[in-house]
Write a structure and sequence with these properties.
This is Flagella cluster protein. The chain is an all-beta fold and 80 residues long. Helices cover 0% and strands 35% of the residues. The chain starts with 18 loop residues before the first strand and ends with a strand. The relative contact order is 0.28.
Length: 80
């Protein structure tokens, strides 16, 4: 199981073979994990990945466990 690498920033294109774009707008995107990538925070597989380049974000109740990972220029929220 390949783990997302955020050590030198995060480029979604490096993982596009296993992530499916669900939603995108100015500065954010939501992706589904179709390839079983591992979370960079806990090492477990995740279901959804939210990537934001915005300085602020608001979230509703995800209804599940989640992890946060900070890359150089983005915040990643991974739901399990």
């Amino acid at each position: 199981m390949e783990q997302l690498d955020v050590s030198g920033g995060f480029d979604v294109h490096d993982y596009r073979h296993g992530l499916k774009l669900l939603k995108q707008d100015s500065g954010t995107m939501t992706l589904a994990n179709r390839d079983g990538f591992a979370c960079p925070a806990c090492g477990e597989p995740f279901e959804r990945l939210f990537v934001s380049e915005r300085r602020t974000n608001s979230f509703g109740d995800p209804g599940t466990a989640f992890c946060l990972a900070r890359a150089d220029d983005s915040l990643l929220v991974l739901t399990h």
